[in-house]
């Protein structure tokens, strides 16, 4: 499997998790608000500081985003492109965001696909400087007992989201759990998710999240060769078959040239590049 060398020492723990009860979210982003501020307000109204949300429809203007790029120096293994600001704004086709805290303020990490005057584009949305122009429907899952916190990461030399426990989780009805998780570089994302589920006694779950992969291998034989990519999980499921956990991940991904790809990941050959952040939603009958 492909391996990327980051500038700092590899952390001994390759995954981290925090646990809470899932809180269904549904709200709208209103015109005039910055995307990040509006999402944070929607979570706060449900008593949540962290979680996962999906954005559908609506428009943003101005809208700013970046794409994955090679690092200009040895301080990082990958970097970002220059900022893009499409003329006339964009229509949000699909965007997914991990929500947490950075520098003691609400922060979102958002990847998505948007329609521009020049066609669909994909990348990393800059939520503080992208403004809602037409209402955007948001749904997702919040967590009150845990969140993601921006933390300096020695291995990658980035500040990255890390799951943290904010309060004690007290189990409610059986299976009513959500895990916030982070997977570090050079771990196959499907294998890592299965390991997380196994260690928490989870046999059936839905997987939400975004991150980066070091190249991509799809089940139809197609591939992405770019070592830096940005990914969102379009459909993710963990099930038990034949006594073994099996993960199925269908993703959208953009490479360093701006090309967009979609498909189901090959199991065991899709290593994380910088980070992958997840919300794992335990389904009914899928946990103790």
From TrEMBL:
A Pfam family hit: PCC
SUPFAM superfamilies: AF0104/ALDC/Ptd012-like (SSF117856)
InterPro entries xref list: PPC_dom
Limits of the PPC domain: 19-164, 172-288
Signal peptide feature range: none
Protein name: DUF296 domain-containing protein
Lineage, top ranks: Bacteria, Pseudomonadati, Pseudomonadota, Alphaproteobacteria, Hyphomicrobiales
């Amino acid at each position: 499997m492909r391996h990327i060398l980051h500038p700092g020492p590899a952390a001994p723990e390759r995954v981290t998790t925090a646990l809470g009860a899932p809180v269904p979210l549904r709200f709208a982003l209103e015109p005039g608000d910055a995307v990040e501020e509006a999402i944070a307000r929607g979570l706060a109204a449900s008593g949540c500081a962290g979680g996962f949300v999906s954005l559908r429809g609506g428009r943003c203007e101005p809208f700013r985003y970046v794409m994955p790029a090679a690092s200009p120096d040895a301080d990082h293994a990958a970097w970002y492109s220059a900022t893009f600001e499409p003329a006339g704004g964009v229509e949000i086709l699909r965007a997914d965001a991990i929500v947490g805290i950075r520098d003691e303020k609400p922060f979102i990490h958002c990847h998505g696909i948007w329609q521009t005057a020049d066609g669909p584009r994909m990348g990393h949305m800059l939520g503080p400087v992208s403004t809602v122009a037409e209402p955007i429907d948001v749904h997702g899952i919040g967590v009150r007992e845990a969140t993601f916190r921006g933390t300096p990461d020695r291995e990658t030399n980035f500040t990255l989201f890390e799951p943290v426990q904010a309060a004690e989780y007290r189990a409610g009805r059986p299976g009513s759990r959500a895990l916030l998780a982070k997977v570090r570089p050079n771990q196959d994302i499907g294998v890592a998710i299965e390991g997380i589920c196994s260690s928490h006694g989870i046999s059936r779950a839905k997987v939400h999240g975004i991150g980066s992969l070091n190249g991509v291998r799809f089940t139809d034989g197609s591939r992405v060769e770019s070592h830096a990519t940005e990914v969102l999980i379009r459909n993710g499921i963990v099930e038990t078959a034949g006594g073994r956990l099996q993960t199925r991940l269908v993703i959208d991904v953009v490479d360093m040239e701006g090309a967009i790809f979609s498909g189901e990941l090959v199991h065991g050959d899709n290593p994380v590049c910088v980070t992958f952040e997840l919300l794992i939603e335990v389904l009914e009958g899928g946990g103790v």
